[in-house]
Amino acid sequence: MKLWSVERYKFFTRNQEPGESVERYITEVKLLSQTCNFDSLQDSLIRDRIVVGIKDMNLRERLLRIPDLKLEKCIETCRASELSKERMKVMDSSDSVHAVKGNDSQNKKDMTKTRQTKGKGQSFKSRGQSTDCKYCGYGHKPGRDNCPAYGKECRVCHKQNHFASMCKSMKGTKKVNQLDTQNQSSTDGEYDEINSVTLLTNEGKVNKINETKTSSPVNQIYAKMMVGENEVKFQLDTGATCNILPAKYVDKTNVIMDQNEVLSMYNKTTITPLGRTKVKLVNPRNNKKYKAEFVILDGECTPLLGSKAVQYMNLVKVQYDNIYTVQKSQSGEMTTETLLHKYKDIFEGTGKLKGEYHLVVDPNIKPVVHPPRKVPVAETTKGGVRQTHKE
User: Fold this and answer.
1) What pairs with residue 245 in β-bridges?
2) Distance between first and last Cα of the chain
3) 224 burial type by CB count under 10 A (0-12 exposed, 13-18 middle, 19+ buried)
4) Cα angle 154, 156, 159; round to 5
5) What's the alpha-carbon Rg for the chain, to the nearest Å?
6) Cα–Cα distance between 207 and 282 in angstroms, integer?
7) Less Cβ around it within 10 Å: N or C end of the chain?
8) Structure confidence at residue 2 (pLDDT)
9) 8 Å CB contact between 220 and 310
10) Following DSSP, what letter does each residue of 190-250 receive, concatenated?
């Protein structure tokens, strides 16, 4: 005999454990519900247990905003959110590794500085004056002025006063020697087809490129734009066919249109976006305004301006004179009119068959007189050409 109270207690107290995936948690909740004798309430109680028991507060808030939430929609949303975060972590980790390999001389300086700073931190710690700092990861004297991360911008989330190695958005990913590389950033998203960019006043120019003025080529180019009250650092990507923006920068009054599209990333993975919406941008360099369509992603990602946007806003100029391309045929598309014009001699006159043909008439057949044709033979031929072209 089963004790329903005990089984239901296990069900209602089952929360997602640290390090447990959403998929695993959902499976465990479903298994526990099978021994609780919930009858017709089983699906709704499983849904409620998932919403209450998940550790991701942002995901829980998102689920609570969905009216008349069904179990299937709840599970689908949880899976999509976890999958999106896992893929973003892979992308961020990949970008961090490239950043360390990108500049050998700079990396040696950073590693030397890291060792020196860490050495000092260890001496402080040995005297019992400090512990490892949650902003820089090293030991140092108390006070923000003694923290090497104070005033520095994180290369992952672009916020101030902490290194990328200690960034909260990097939880669950590998840290590479705890280096704070100043000339690289987290990975970009990729992409779907851009629909439109609308100029509100005039074209704009780039605000900042990697924070320093340089004439030499760089691996990644950035421009700061104002989105509402937020200053957002966009990566300029001429290889992207859409604009990307995290949902946290979208105003609540903006309507996000649902879509069935999937973004294909550079590493052949896919991400399902929340949808599309039009966003107003202001270039703080010259106060020129734009309105562009963005693909909205849930969670942390690098804001991105795609190929059409960066060209239209004069942030990147393509030198077409230096590009060898295969020109399109000057004849243009073959239409019925061009076909009739090109071979007009076929459709003029009565025409004449080559050679001679001998007709044999049966003398027993009575001749018949037919009325004139309503449509000339030439016009009938043209009609046949048009019909063949349509087919």
Assistant:
1) 296
2) 73
3) middle
4) 40
5) 34
6) 10
7) N
8) 64
9) no
10) -------EEESS-------STTS--SS--S-EEEEEEETTEEEEEEE-TT-SS-EEEGGGS
Residue 55 has which token pair?
């550790």
The first and second tokens of residue 387, run together, are 């019909």
* pTM across the whole model: 0.34
CA angle 265, 277, 308 (to 5 degrees): 60
Dihedral Cα 341, 346, 347, 350, nearest 10 deg? 150
Each residue of 53-70: pLDDT tens digit? 999 888 999 899 988 899
Round to whole Å and give the CA distance between 311 and 203. 10
HSE toward the beta carbon, residue 379, CA cutoff 13 A:
4
pLDDT in tens, 9-63: 999 999 999 888 888 899 999 999 988 888 889 999 999 999 999 998 889 998 9
Q: How big is the chain, counted in residues?
A: 391
What residue ranges define each of the domains in the chain, with the CATH number in brackets?
4-85 (1.10.1200), 99-170 (no CATH), 197-322 (2.40.70.10)
How many other CB atoms are there within 10 angstroms of residue 16's CB atom?
20
Query: What type of residue is 137?
Result: G
Render each residue's pLDDT in the chain as its tens digit; 391 residues.
Answer: 467 888 899 999 999 998 888 888 999 999 999 888 888 899 999 999 999 999 988 899 989 998 889 999 999 999 888 888 888 877 765 444 343 344 444 444 454 444 444 444 443 334 444 467 888 887 777 877 788 888 888 877 878 888 877 887 665 444 433 333 333 333 333 323 334 455 454 444 444 434 444 455 667 888 999 988 889 999 888 888 889 889 888 887 778 887 777 887 766 677 888 888 888 889 888 888 898 899 888 878 889 898 888 888 888 888 877 887 766 555 566 788 888 888 887 777 776 777 888 888 888 888 888 788 777 766 766 666 566 556 5
Residue 388's region, left for phi above 0, alpha for psi from -120 to 50, else beta, is alpha
Which pLDDT belongs to residue 131?
60
CA dihedral 143, 145, 148, 152 (to 10 degrees): 120
